Amino acid sequence: MTAATARPRAEAVSSHRELLAKRARQTRGRRRVVNYVMVSASYLSAAVVALPLILILVYLIKQGASSVGWSFFTQPPVPAGEPGGGMANAMVGTLILVAIASLVGLPIGIGAGLFLAEQRGTRTANAVRFLSDVLNGLPSIVIGIFAWQVLVRPLHHYSALAGGLALGAMMIPLVTRATEEMTRVVPTSLREAALALGYTKWRTSLSVVLRTALPGIVTGALVAVARVAGETAPLIFTAFGNQFWSFSPFKPIAALPMSIYSYAISPYDDWHRQAWAGALVLLALVFIISLAARFATRARYGLGGD
Amino acid sequence: MDSTPVGDRLYQGVTTAFALIIPALLLFIAWEVLRGAWPALRHFGFSFYATSEWDDVNGRFGAAPAVFGTVVSSILALIIATPLAVGVAIFLSEFAPRWLRQPIAFLVDLLAAIPSVVYGLWGIIVLVPFLRESVMSFIRDTLHLGGLPLFSGPAYGPSMLAAGCILAIMILPYISAVTREVLMAVPRSQREAALALGATRWEMIWDAVLPYARSGIIGGVILGLGRALGETMAVTMVIGNRHEISASLFAPGYTMASVIANEFSEATNEIHVSALMAVGFGLLVVTIIVNAIARWLVWRTARGPAGAP
């Protein structure tokens, strides 16, 4: 090879190298830009999601706080156009409905959850777990027409009992799964220690497993209560609502979410204000219960000391 | 078996009984709703879900507009919510500094804890006027898209668009919670391998993390779909409640859940009640199927890698 032919070849090679390097730089640049854009998009979506929550809370507090007064907590509603009035009867109604729901939902849910914990891995347990998820996914309005068909239609009148039982049916799968999750974290060694000390299985399950998991189960129960306390759809044709005080389980009863609904769809500004006030109280109730649930969980971790 | 103490057998019997209440209740619900729906289903046949006449005076009912509205509003909600929810989940599992993780996750959980009726109230008083005055006029006058069938017709405010938006806000926390869970379940080695090959962080997520978590994320989205299909109060309050099938997102409509909520207590005759029950039965069947698929997908991912990614 002569120098004359070698030189252009070397030039060609180096220019080819340059081209490759240039392409690599371009690709790297593009990759960097794509990376930058997508990572920012992820940050942005977090901000966008936080936005509606903040908007709702700000509106709620601004509109609700001006309408929440002493009479709101002590008076039943007054007819449209008259000043004053409150939602006291609806708050009591919600408490009664939730109490009925808990009477049904908690024992069944905890019992079924203990069953799932004891029989873990068996066919029946898997089927029950799956069906409890299916039940949890049923629209609340379907539970509502079911309760109407079973408890209102044959008896020919709306009642707090029908509403409470509809809410109870919604609580069962929530409490079941919470109980199972919480008993799952109880160490096997604890269970084995109890059995080795001669405890029977049922004593082990109740005094060791259930007791250790109790704070967690309380959390799950509170979350379930918070969830059903805000439900409207299962109540509109079971508990129906009531303008007046009622404490009887066999009569129609008011509930906070239902009052908010009927006030919100009314054309009166005054009632809209009442609806905001009701929504603020309902949301405060739900948040307080959720926060209490968080503290119950924290207490568990504090005591666990593992 | 014989040596099992009485207490144990009793305990097992009682917990088993409680557990069996769940399948029994589910069957009971399905049976009773079907029983209530039977007169309408027998009278109209399965074309009940495909015809669109809704005349409670003459007793002729067809649920097609409600079925259409349920499908359209839910799909609209998924289109809006899925990218945002996945984005938040990625942010929380990959990018967020430790101190920010808890508060943002808590905020997203709070979003799920807000009762439906509160969303509805906010929808009526804030979202609907905002859509009418800003978004709809922007699409019409600034983008000049009023000619498209999707954006045609008068813009009152209560509309399919409003329902889709409110549903998107409501299902977002569900999708994002499930997605975050499956992203957390992706092994570290998967990420480290991608980074070691020189991937940028986004390439790591796109090529190594998301394929691994794919079927779990799809499961989360379908779970959100299940919620959207059955969501009642907020939708009833903003969708406009009209038995019409319209191509326009600005037009009012109905969903299966909202037609029940709105008309059930005012239903006067037997066949009207039964028709509403039949709508409820359709909703029940669809949500059971959708939820079963979602649970299966999430369960499959949680167990390990889903086939070849």
For the record, the CATH architecture of chain B stands as: Orthogonal Bundle
Q: How many strand elements of chain B? A: 2
Largest interface (CB within 8 Å) is between: A-B, 87 and 89 residues
What is the tally of beta strands of chain A? 0
Fill in the CATH topology of chain B. Answer: MetI-like fold
The fraction of residues assigned to DSSP E strands of chain A is: under 5%
First-last Cα distance of chain B: 47 Å
Under the CATH scheme, which architecture of chain A would be assigned? Orthogonal Bundle
Q: Structural class, from helix and strand content of chain A?
A: mainly alpha
How would you portray this structure in words?
The complex is a heterodimer of chains A (306) and B (309). With 306 residues, chain A is mostly helical. Chain A has one domain: MetI-like fold, CATH 1.10.3720.10. Chain A has helices at 3-65, 70-74, 88-118, 123-137, 140-152, 160-184, 188-196, 201-229, 256-264, 269-304. The longest helix of chain A has 63 residues, at 3-65. The model of chain A is unreliable at 301-306 (pLDDT under 50). Chain B is mostly helical and 309 residues long. Chain B has one domain: Orthogonal Bundle (MetI-like fold). Helices cover 73% and strands 1% of the residues of chain B. In chain B, helix 1 crosses helix 10 (270-303) and helix 6 runs antiparallel to helix 7 (201-230). Chain B is flat and about 70 Å long. At the A-B interface, helix 1, helix 3, helix 4, helix 5 and helix 6 of A face helix 1, helix 2, helix 3, helix 4 and helix 5 of B.
